[in-house]
Amino acid sequence: MGRVDKAKTFVGDTPAKASEVNTVFDDIYNEFNGSVDEYNLNLDRPELKAALGDLFYPVGSKYTNFSDGTNPATLLGFGTWERIAKGKVVVGVDSTDTDFNTAEKTGGEKTHTLTDAEMPSHNHSGTTGNDSHTHTVTDKYYVYGINAGPGGGDDFGYNSATRTTSENTHNHSISTAGSDNAHNNLQPYITAYIWKRTA
Fold first, then answer.
1. Which of 63, 75, 138, 149 lies in disulfide reach of 195, CB 3.0 to 4.6 Å?
2. Contact between residue 167 and residue 135 where contact means Cβ atoms under 8 Å apart
3. Would residue 38 count as lying in a domain?
């Protein structure tokens, strides 16, 4: 009983509260320094906590708490801890992707404004307007006949006439859309206090 049951309590699938972890530490400490001489490690409580802390939370490991932001050094009684990933999500290292190929790389944006190259191919609607108007054109043409020329006589001359044609004007206008604001770039998330053990 004793040690095996308590180890299951500590490392089982259900996360233990800080107070429960401290109780387990107390029980293990008492058993190690109690009547079972073959398991007596002769460690005082801080050293035992540090030894178990190194086992379950080695330097570089992560501690997460969804309700208590107290430094794990106070909650667990060992180690030096640093708050990390404030406002960020944690992504697994992928050695084949240069964005994620080493630990503790950072990147990404909370909001993002699209560039022209990032916008999808699209069209804008247009309109054509029609307004009635006229064009005035003067035509000159040659004639042949008696007294046709400027000096009289049978020679060539010219007359002129003015005519008006009706046409329609048209204009094109292209509509615009959008306000050039940055868009939300957040995935669904849940917040927690995340700590990294540094020593």
1. 63
2. yes
3. yes
